[in-house]
Amino acid sequence: MSTPKPLHAVVFSISLQGHVIPSVHLAIKLASKGFTITFVNTQVIHHQITTSSVGSRDDDDVDIFASARDAGLDIRYKTVSDGFPLGFDRYLNVEQYLEGHLHVFPAHVDELVRGLVVTADPPISCLVADTFFGWQSVIAKKYGLLYVSFWTEPALVFSLYYHLDLLKINGHYASQDNREDTIDYIPGIKAIEPKDLTSHLQETDVSTAMSRLINKVSQDMRKADFVLCNTVHELESEPISAIREIQPMYAIGPLFPSGFSDTKSVVPTSLKPESDCTQWLSTKTHGSVLYISFGSFISCGKNDIDEIAHGLLLSKVNFIWVLRTYATSYEEPYVLPNGFEDEVKGRGLTVTWTNQIEVISHPAIGGFLTHCGWNSVLESIWYGIPMLCFPLMTDQLTNRKLVVDDWRIGVNLCDRKSLTRFEVAEKINRLMKGKSADELRIEVMKVKQTLRNALAKDGSSDWNLCQFISDVEAKIVNKV
Protein backbone atom coordinates (compact mmCIF):
# COMPACT_ATOMS: atom_id res chain seq x y z
CA MET A 1 0.00 0.00 0.00
CA SER A 2 1.48 3.37 -1.05
CA THR A 3 2.01 6.17 1.45
CA PRO A 4 -0.37 9.12 0.82
CA LYS A 5 1.39 12.20 -0.52
CA PRO A 6 1.36 15.32 1.68
CA LEU A 7 -1.08 18.14 1.05
CA HIS A 8 0.46 20.79 -1.18
CA ALA A 9 -0.74 24.38 -0.83
CA VAL A 10 0.18 27.41 -2.93
CA VAL A 11 0.30 30.46 -0.64
CA PHE A 12 -0.14 33.98 -2.07
CA SER A 13 0.35 37.18 -0.06
CA ILE A 14 -0.82 40.72 -0.73
CA SER A 15 2.15 43.00 -1.51
CA LEU A 16 2.13 44.94 1.76
CA GLN A 17 4.38 44.51 4.79
CA GLY A 18 1.48 43.87 7.16
CA HIS A 19 0.23 41.03 4.96
CA VAL A 20 3.57 39.46 3.98
CA ILE A 21 4.63 38.85 7.62
CA PRO A 22 1.63 36.74 8.74
CA SER A 23 1.52 34.96 5.36
CA VAL A 24 5.12 33.80 5.76
CA HIS A 25 4.44 32.62 9.34
CA LEU A 26 1.31 30.80 8.15
CA ALA A 27 3.37 29.01 5.49
CA ILE A 28 5.93 27.96 8.11
CA LYS A 29 3.19 26.77 10.46
CA LEU A 30 1.46 24.69 7.78
CA ALA A 31 4.78 23.21 6.68
CA SER A 32 5.57 22.29 10.29
CA LYS A 33 2.26 20.35 10.31
CA GLY A 34 3.25 18.30 7.25
CA PHE A 35 2.12 20.46 4.32
CA THR A 36 4.25 20.97 1.25
CA ILE A 37 4.12 24.72 0.55
CA THR A 38 4.86 26.75 -2.55
CA PHE A 39 5.03 30.34 -1.36
CA VAL A 40 4.57 33.08 -3.97
CA ASN A 41 5.71 36.67 -3.61
CA THR A 42 5.37 39.37 -6.24
CA GLN A 43 8.67 40.25 -7.90
CA VAL A 44 8.67 43.72 -6.34
CA ILE A 45 8.21 42.35 -2.82
CA HIS A 46 10.93 39.75 -3.43
CA HIS A 47 13.25 42.54 -4.58
CA GLN A 48 12.50 44.67 -1.51
CA ILE A 49 13.05 41.77 0.90
CA THR A 50 16.27 40.59 -0.67
CA THR A 51 17.82 44.05 -0.94
CA SER A 52 16.75 45.00 2.59
CA SER A 53 17.33 41.76 4.49
CA VAL A 54 19.77 39.73 2.44
CA GLY A 55 21.71 42.60 0.90
CA SER A 56 21.66 41.09 -2.58
CA ARG A 57 21.76 43.26 -5.67
CA ASP A 58 21.30 40.33 -8.05
CA ASP A 59 18.28 38.86 -6.27
CA ASP A 60 16.88 36.53 -8.95
CA ASP A 61 18.50 33.45 -7.44
CA VAL A 62 17.88 34.30 -3.78
CA ASP A 63 15.49 31.91 -2.05
CA ILE A 64 14.22 33.48 1.17
CA PHE A 65 12.96 30.09 2.38
CA ALA A 66 16.33 28.32 2.07
CA SER A 67 16.92 28.33 5.84
CA ALA A 68 13.41 26.98 6.45
CA ARG A 69 14.18 24.03 4.18
CA ASP A 70 17.48 23.51 6.00
CA ALA A 71 15.37 23.23 9.17
CA GLY A 72 13.41 20.38 7.57
CA LEU A 73 10.37 22.22 6.15
CA ASP A 74 9.21 21.53 2.60
CA ILE A 75 8.66 25.09 1.40
CA ARG A 76 9.35 25.98 -2.22
CA TYR A 77 9.52 29.58 -3.43
CA LYS A 78 8.25 31.35 -6.55
CA THR A 79 7.82 34.94 -7.67
CA VAL A 80 5.25 36.44 -10.01
CA SER A 81 4.85 39.78 -11.76
CA ASP A 82 2.07 42.05 -10.50
CA GLY A 83 1.88 43.55 -14.00
CA PHE A 84 4.11 46.54 -13.32
CA PRO A 85 7.90 47.00 -13.66
CA LEU A 86 10.03 47.18 -10.49
CA GLY A 87 10.57 50.91 -10.96
CA PHE A 88 6.84 51.73 -11.07
CA ASP A 89 5.85 53.75 -7.98
CA ARG A 90 2.89 51.86 -6.56
CA TYR A 91 2.33 54.40 -3.76
CA LEU A 92 2.20 57.52 -5.91
CA ASN A 93 0.05 55.80 -8.55
CA VAL A 94 -2.26 53.87 -6.24
CA GLU A 95 -5.38 54.06 -8.44
CA GLN A 96 -3.49 52.72 -11.46
CA TYR A 97 -1.94 50.03 -9.27
CA LEU A 98 -5.32 48.93 -7.94
CA GLU A 99 -6.71 48.74 -11.48
CA GLY A 100 -3.79 46.47 -12.34
CA HIS A 101 -4.46 44.43 -9.22
CA LEU A 102 -8.02 43.84 -10.40
CA HIS A 103 -7.47 43.28 -14.12
CA VAL A 104 -3.80 42.46 -14.91
CA PHE A 105 -2.33 40.66 -11.91
CA PRO A 106 -4.86 37.77 -12.01
CA ALA A 107 -3.62 36.73 -15.46
CA HIS A 108 -0.04 36.37 -14.16
CA VAL A 109 -1.26 34.35 -11.17
CA ASP A 110 -3.37 32.14 -13.43
CA GLU A 111 -0.33 31.37 -15.60
CA LEU A 112 1.80 30.48 -12.56
CA VAL A 113 -0.89 28.27 -11.00
CA ARG A 114 -1.48 26.50 -14.33
CA GLY A 115 2.21 25.61 -14.52
CA LEU A 116 2.27 24.36 -10.93
CA VAL A 117 -0.83 22.23 -11.42
CA VAL A 118 0.87 20.49 -14.35
CA THR A 119 4.35 20.01 -12.83
CA ALA A 120 4.19 20.07 -9.01
CA ASP A 121 5.03 16.96 -7.01
CA PRO A 122 3.19 16.31 -4.75
CA PRO A 123 0.24 17.69 -6.74
CA ILE A 124 -1.29 21.02 -5.74
CA SER A 125 -4.39 20.48 -3.61
CA CYS A 126 -5.35 23.95 -2.40
CA LEU A 127 -4.85 27.64 -3.00
CA VAL A 128 -4.26 29.70 0.16
CA ALA A 129 -4.59 33.36 -0.73
CA ASP A 130 -5.02 36.64 1.09
CA THR A 131 -8.71 37.50 1.12
CA PHE A 132 -8.03 40.96 -0.29
CA PHE A 133 -7.15 39.75 -3.78
CA GLY A 134 -10.84 39.50 -4.65
CA TRP A 135 -10.50 37.09 -7.59
CA GLN A 136 -8.75 33.98 -6.28
CA SER A 137 -11.89 31.81 -6.08
CA VAL A 138 -12.13 31.89 -9.91
CA ILE A 139 -8.58 30.57 -10.30
CA ALA A 140 -9.05 27.91 -7.62
CA LYS A 141 -12.27 26.68 -9.26
CA LYS A 142 -10.67 26.71 -12.73
CA TYR A 143 -7.96 24.27 -11.62
CA GLY A 144 -10.06 22.18 -9.24
CA LEU A 145 -8.28 23.42 -6.10
CA LEU A 146 -9.71 24.04 -2.65
CA TYR A 147 -9.82 27.77 -1.95
CA VAL A 148 -8.58 28.81 1.49
CA SER A 149 -9.14 32.49 2.24
CA PHE A 150 -6.50 33.92 4.60
CA TRP A 151 -7.72 36.90 6.62
CA THR A 152 -4.90 38.93 8.23
CA GLU A 153 -7.14 41.28 10.25
CA PRO A 154 -9.62 40.82 13.15
CA ALA A 155 -12.68 38.63 12.70
CA LEU A 156 -14.74 41.73 13.51
CA VAL A 157 -13.44 43.42 10.34
CA PHE A 158 -13.99 40.25 8.30
CA SER A 159 -17.62 40.25 9.41
CA LEU A 160 -18.08 43.89 8.37
CA TYR A 161 -16.86 43.20 4.83
CA TYR A 162 -18.73 39.90 4.70
CA HIS A 163 -21.98 41.70 5.46
CA LEU A 164 -21.36 44.61 3.11
CA ASP A 165 -24.83 44.02 1.66
CA LEU A 166 -26.46 44.72 5.05
CA LEU A 167 -24.48 47.96 5.41
CA LYS A 168 -25.66 49.02 1.95
CA ILE A 169 -29.31 48.09 2.54
CA ASN A 170 -29.37 50.02 5.80
CA GLY A 171 -27.66 53.09 4.37
CA HIS A 172 -24.45 52.87 6.41
CA TYR A 173 -22.32 52.34 3.28
CA ALA A 174 -22.45 53.39 -0.39
CA SER A 175 -24.89 56.20 0.35
CA GLN A 176 -24.49 59.85 -0.56
CA ASP A 177 -25.22 60.59 3.08
CA ASN A 178 -24.23 57.57 5.15
CA ARG A 179 -26.26 57.07 8.32
CA GLU A 180 -24.52 57.94 11.60
CA ASP A 181 -26.61 55.93 14.05
CA THR A 182 -25.40 52.76 15.79
CA ILE A 183 -25.08 49.64 13.64
CA ASP A 184 -26.74 46.76 15.51
CA TYR A 185 -27.93 44.37 12.79
CA ILE A 186 -24.76 42.49 11.78
CA PRO A 187 -24.65 38.89 13.06
CA GLY A 188 -22.07 38.45 15.83
CA ILE A 189 -21.57 42.20 16.36
CA LYS A 190 -23.69 43.59 19.19
CA ALA A 191 -23.16 47.21 18.20
CA ILE A 192 -20.60 49.33 16.39
CA GLU A 193 -20.55 53.05 15.68
CA PRO A 194 -20.05 54.22 12.07
CA LYS A 195 -16.88 56.06 13.16
CA ASP A 196 -15.42 52.66 14.10
CA LEU A 197 -15.96 51.12 10.68
CA THR A 198 -12.88 50.71 8.50
CA SER A 199 -12.05 53.92 6.66
CA HIS A 200 -13.06 52.42 3.30
CA LEU A 201 -16.54 51.67 4.66
CA GLN A 202 -16.95 55.29 5.75
CA GLU A 203 -16.44 56.61 2.21
CA THR A 204 -19.41 58.04 0.32
CA ASP A 205 -17.69 57.91 -3.09
CA VAL A 206 -17.89 54.26 -4.16
CA SER A 207 -16.68 54.80 -7.73
CA THR A 208 -12.99 54.38 -6.84
CA ALA A 209 -10.87 51.35 -7.64
CA MET A 210 -10.65 50.58 -3.92
CA SER A 211 -14.43 50.55 -3.60
CA ARG A 212 -14.72 48.18 -6.53
CA LEU A 213 -12.06 45.96 -4.97
CA ILE A 214 -13.98 45.89 -1.67
CA ASN A 215 -17.13 44.81 -3.50
CA LYS A 216 -15.23 41.99 -5.22
CA VAL A 217 -13.63 40.94 -1.94
CA SER A 218 -17.02 40.84 -0.20
CA GLN A 219 -18.38 38.55 -2.92
CA ASP A 220 -15.27 36.38 -3.24
CA MET A 221 -14.84 35.71 0.49
CA ARG A 222 -18.21 33.93 0.47
CA LYS A 223 -16.89 31.42 -2.07
CA ALA A 224 -14.03 30.15 0.08
CA ASP A 225 -14.04 26.51 1.15
CA PHE A 226 -12.29 27.54 4.39
CA VAL A 227 -11.29 30.80 6.09
CA LEU A 228 -8.15 31.10 8.22
CA CYS A 229 -8.12 34.15 10.50
CA ASN A 230 -5.10 35.65 12.28
CA THR A 231 -6.94 36.14 15.56
CA VAL A 232 -7.78 34.30 18.79
CA HIS A 233 -11.18 32.73 19.35
CA GLU A 234 -11.37 33.76 23.01
CA LEU A 235 -10.97 37.42 22.07
CA GLU A 236 -13.48 37.45 19.21
CA SER A 237 -15.79 34.53 19.90
CA GLU A 238 -19.03 36.25 18.83
CA PRO A 239 -18.12 37.33 15.27
CA ILE A 240 -16.24 34.04 14.71
CA SER A 241 -19.18 31.94 15.89
CA ALA A 242 -21.58 33.91 13.69
CA ILE A 243 -19.43 33.40 10.59
CA ARG A 244 -18.95 29.71 11.41
CA GLU A 245 -22.71 29.21 11.14
CA ILE A 246 -22.45 29.93 7.41
CA GLN A 247 -18.81 29.25 6.50
CA PRO A 248 -15.89 27.28 8.06
CA MET A 249 -13.63 29.80 9.88
CA TYR A 250 -10.62 28.88 12.00
CA ALA A 251 -8.96 31.33 14.42
CA ILE A 252 -5.29 30.32 14.23
CA GLY A 253 -3.52 33.45 15.50
CA PRO A 254 -1.41 35.08 16.57
CA LEU A 255 0.93 34.15 13.71
CA PHE A 256 4.42 34.88 15.01
CA PRO A 257 7.90 33.44 14.42
CA SER A 258 8.16 30.14 16.28
CA GLY A 259 10.59 27.30 16.74
CA PHE A 260 13.72 29.31 16.04
CA SER A 261 13.74 32.27 18.48
CA ASP A 262 11.31 34.68 20.10
CA THR A 263 12.09 37.68 17.90
CA LYS A 264 13.66 36.46 14.67
CA SER A 265 12.00 34.59 11.84
CA VAL A 266 14.02 32.02 9.92
CA VAL A 267 12.59 33.69 6.79
CA PRO A 268 13.36 37.38 6.09
CA THR A 269 10.18 39.44 5.74
CA SER A 270 11.22 43.08 6.16
CA LEU A 271 10.75 45.30 3.12
CA LYS A 272 13.14 47.93 4.50
CA PRO A 273 16.65 47.85 6.04
CA GLU A 274 16.41 47.58 9.85
CA SER A 275 18.30 49.61 12.43
CA ASP A 276 19.48 47.74 15.53
CA CYS A 277 18.14 49.56 18.60
CA THR A 278 19.06 46.98 21.26
CA GLN A 279 22.30 48.62 22.39
CA TRP A 280 20.56 51.98 22.90
CA LEU A 281 17.63 50.33 24.69
CA SER A 282 19.98 48.51 27.05
CA THR A 283 21.07 51.87 28.49
CA LYS A 284 17.49 52.64 29.63
CA THR A 285 15.65 51.52 32.76
CA HIS A 286 12.88 48.94 32.78
CA GLY A 287 9.62 50.17 31.21
CA SER A 288 10.90 53.72 30.65
CA VAL A 289 10.87 53.88 26.82
CA LEU A 290 7.92 54.70 24.57
CA TYR A 291 8.05 52.98 21.19
CA ILE A 292 6.43 54.89 18.30
CA SER A 293 5.61 53.51 14.87
CA PHE A 294 2.84 54.21 12.39
CA GLY A 295 3.51 51.25 10.11
CA SER A 296 5.12 50.80 6.72
CA PHE A 297 2.64 52.28 4.29
CA ILE A 298 0.08 54.93 5.23
CA SER A 299 1.16 58.57 5.52
CA CYS A 300 0.29 60.93 8.38
CA GLY A 301 -0.60 64.62 8.22
CA LYS A 302 2.44 66.86 8.58
CA ASN A 303 0.74 68.91 11.29
CA ASP A 304 0.00 65.73 13.28
CA ILE A 305 3.62 64.57 13.11
CA ASP A 306 4.80 68.05 14.13
CA GLU A 307 2.45 68.03 17.14
CA ILE A 308 3.62 64.54 18.14
CA ALA A 309 7.24 65.73 17.95
CA HIS A 310 6.49 68.74 20.18
CA GLY A 311 4.44 66.54 22.50
CA LEU A 312 7.44 64.26 22.93
CA LEU A 313 9.55 67.27 23.86
CA LEU A 314 7.01 68.30 26.50
CA SER A 315 6.56 64.78 27.89
CA LYS A 316 10.24 64.31 28.82
CA VAL A 317 9.93 60.50 28.33
CA ASN A 318 12.49 58.28 26.64
CA PHE A 319 11.41 57.11 23.19
CA ILE A 320 12.29 55.27 19.98
CA TRP A 321 10.48 56.72 17.00
CA VAL A 322 10.27 54.81 13.72
CA LEU A 323 9.92 57.80 11.43
CA ARG A 324 9.91 56.89 7.76
CA THR A 325 11.55 59.43 5.47
CA TYR A 326 8.26 59.85 3.60
CA ALA A 327 6.10 59.76 6.73
CA THR A 328 3.79 62.55 5.60
CA SER A 329 3.98 62.34 1.80
CA TYR A 330 5.48 60.09 -0.84
CA GLU A 331 6.37 63.22 -2.82
CA GLU A 332 8.34 65.12 -0.17
CA PRO A 333 10.46 63.82 2.74
CA TYR A 334 9.48 64.87 6.27
CA VAL A 335 11.79 67.13 8.24
CA LEU A 336 11.66 67.21 12.05
CA PRO A 337 11.10 70.58 13.78
CA ASN A 338 14.23 72.72 14.14
CA GLY A 339 16.28 71.75 17.17
CA PHE A 340 14.26 68.59 17.92
CA GLU A 341 17.14 66.14 17.74
CA ASP A 342 19.37 68.32 19.91
CA GLU A 343 16.68 68.68 22.58
CA VAL A 344 16.00 64.93 22.81
CA LYS A 345 19.63 63.84 22.63
CA GLY A 346 20.21 60.95 25.01
CA ARG A 347 16.52 60.21 25.64
CA GLY A 348 15.20 59.94 22.09
CA LEU A 349 16.22 57.81 19.11
CA THR A 350 14.74 58.19 15.62
CA VAL A 351 15.21 55.47 12.98
CA THR A 352 13.63 54.93 9.57
CA TRP A 353 12.86 51.22 10.25
CA THR A 354 13.63 48.51 12.80
CA ASN A 355 12.75 44.98 13.87
CA GLN A 356 9.56 45.76 15.77
CA ILE A 357 9.34 42.51 17.73
CA GLU A 358 12.97 42.84 18.76
CA VAL A 359 12.24 46.32 20.11
CA ILE A 360 8.94 45.80 21.92
CA SER A 361 10.17 42.58 23.52
CA HIS A 362 12.96 44.55 25.21
CA PRO A 363 12.41 45.14 28.96
CA ALA A 364 13.02 48.88 28.54
CA ILE A 365 9.83 49.34 26.49
CA GLY A 366 6.87 50.52 28.58
CA GLY A 367 4.34 51.66 25.97
CA PHE A 368 3.59 51.75 22.24
CA LEU A 369 2.23 54.76 20.34
CA THR A 370 0.74 52.91 17.38
CA HIS A 371 -1.39 53.30 14.27
CA CYS A 372 -3.21 50.11 15.39
CA GLY A 373 -2.15 47.90 12.52
CA TRP A 374 -3.29 44.38 13.44
CA ASN A 375 0.22 42.91 13.58
CA SER A 376 1.27 45.73 15.90
CA VAL A 377 -1.74 45.15 18.16
CA LEU A 378 -1.07 41.41 18.44
CA GLU A 379 2.64 41.91 19.04
CA SER A 380 1.97 44.52 21.74
CA ILE A 381 -0.39 42.17 23.55
CA TRP A 382 2.03 39.26 23.25
CA TYR A 383 4.70 41.24 25.11
CA GLY A 384 2.30 42.94 27.52
CA ILE A 385 2.74 46.48 26.17
CA PRO A 386 -0.17 48.95 26.61
CA MET A 387 -1.00 51.09 23.60
CA LEU A 388 -1.55 54.74 22.80
CA CYS A 389 -3.79 54.58 19.73
CA PHE A 390 -3.58 56.85 16.69
CA PRO A 391 -5.33 55.00 13.82
CA LEU A 392 -4.87 56.41 10.34
CA MET A 393 -6.83 54.33 7.80
CA THR A 394 -8.30 50.97 6.81
CA ASP A 395 -8.91 48.42 9.62
CA GLN A 396 -6.91 50.51 12.09
CA LEU A 397 -10.02 52.47 13.11
CA THR A 398 -11.86 49.26 13.98
CA ASN A 399 -8.79 47.79 15.69
CA ARG A 400 -8.73 50.86 17.92
CA LYS A 401 -12.24 50.04 19.08
CA LEU A 402 -11.12 46.57 20.15
CA VAL A 403 -8.03 47.87 21.97
CA VAL A 404 -9.55 50.86 23.76
CA ASP A 405 -13.29 50.21 24.09
CA ASP A 406 -13.57 46.42 24.24
CA TRP A 407 -10.36 45.12 25.82
CA ARG A 408 -9.35 48.34 27.67
CA ILE A 409 -5.64 47.81 27.05
CA GLY A 410 -5.00 51.17 25.42
CA VAL A 411 -6.04 54.82 25.32
CA ASN A 412 -6.79 57.21 22.48
CA LEU A 413 -4.05 59.67 21.60
CA CYS A 414 -6.57 62.27 20.60
CA ASP A 415 -10.01 62.76 22.17
CA ARG A 416 -10.84 65.54 19.73
CA LYS A 417 -10.44 65.91 15.99
CA SER A 418 -7.46 68.26 16.16
CA LEU A 419 -4.26 66.83 17.64
CA THR A 420 -2.36 69.17 19.96
CA ARG A 421 1.10 68.84 21.48
CA PHE A 422 -0.28 69.39 24.99
CA GLU A 423 -2.73 66.49 24.67
CA VAL A 424 0.04 64.33 23.16
CA ALA A 425 2.29 65.02 26.16
CA GLU A 426 -0.54 64.39 28.64
CA LYS A 427 -1.55 61.11 26.99
CA ILE A 428 2.04 59.88 26.77
CA ASN A 429 2.52 60.48 30.47
CA ARG A 430 -0.81 58.80 31.26
CA LEU A 431 0.36 55.73 29.32
CA MET A 432 3.83 55.60 30.84
CA LYS A 433 3.41 56.78 34.44
CA GLY A 434 1.12 56.66 37.46
CA LYS A 435 -2.04 54.82 38.43
CA SER A 436 -3.64 54.80 34.96
CA ALA A 437 -0.51 53.21 33.49
CA ASP A 438 -0.60 50.51 36.19
CA GLU A 439 -4.27 49.78 35.45
CA LEU A 440 -3.56 49.44 31.73
CA ARG A 441 -0.71 47.02 32.39
CA ILE A 442 -2.95 44.84 34.56
CA GLU A 443 -5.53 44.61 31.76
CA VAL A 444 -2.99 43.98 29.00
CA MET A 445 -1.42 41.17 31.04
CA LYS A 446 -4.81 39.45 31.19
CA VAL A 447 -5.22 39.62 27.41
CA LYS A 448 -1.58 38.58 26.96
CA GLN A 449 -2.28 35.38 28.87
CA THR A 450 -5.25 34.69 26.61
CA LEU A 451 -3.01 34.95 23.53
CA ARG A 452 -0.29 32.79 25.04
CA ASN A 453 -2.77 30.13 26.12
CA ALA A 454 -4.27 30.04 22.63
CA LEU A 455 -0.91 29.49 20.99
CA ALA A 456 0.32 26.90 23.50
CA LYS A 457 0.33 23.21 22.56
CA ASP A 458 -3.31 22.05 22.58
CA GLY A 459 -4.44 25.68 22.93
CA SER A 460 -7.40 26.89 20.87
CA SER A 461 -5.32 28.24 17.95
CA ASP A 462 -3.24 25.08 17.69
CA TRP A 463 -6.40 22.94 17.94
CA ASN A 464 -8.12 25.03 15.26
CA LEU A 465 -5.17 24.67 12.89
CA CYS A 466 -5.17 20.88 13.35
CA GLN A 467 -8.94 20.81 12.82
CA PHE A 468 -8.55 22.86 9.63
CA ILE A 469 -5.97 20.39 8.29
CA SER A 470 -8.24 17.45 9.15
CA ASP A 471 -11.19 19.13 7.41
CA VAL A 472 -9.09 19.85 4.30
CA GLU A 473 -7.97 16.21 4.15
CA ALA A 474 -11.56 15.03 4.49
CA LYS A 475 -12.77 17.36 1.74
CA ILE A 476 -10.02 16.22 -0.63
CA VAL A 477 -10.84 12.55 0.03
CA ASN A 478 -14.52 13.25 -0.68
CA LYS A 479 -13.60 15.10 -3.89
CA VAL A 480 -11.55 12.15 -5.08
TrEMBL record:
<keyword id="KW-0328">Glycosyltransferase</keyword>
<keyword id="KW-0808">Transferase</keyword>
<dbReference type="GO" id="GO:0080043">
    <property type="term" value="F:quercetin 3-O-glucosyltransferase activity"/>
</dbReference>
<comment type="similarity">
    <text>Belongs to the UDP-glycosyltransferase family.</text>
</comment>
<protein>
    <recommendedName>
        <fullName>Glycosyltransferase</fullName>
        <ecNumber>2.4.1.-</ecNumber>
    </recommendedName>
</protein>
<dbReference type="GO" id="GO:0080044">
    <property type="term" value="F:quercetin 7-O-glucosyltransferase activity"/>
</dbReference>
<dbReference type="InterPro" id="IPR035595">
    <property type="entry name" value="UDP_glycos_trans_CS"/>
</dbReference>
<dbReference type="InterPro" id="IPR002213">
    <property type="entry name" value="UDP_glucos_trans"/>
</dbReference>
<dbReference type="Pfam" id="PF00201">
    <property type="entry name" value="UDPGT"/>
</dbReference>
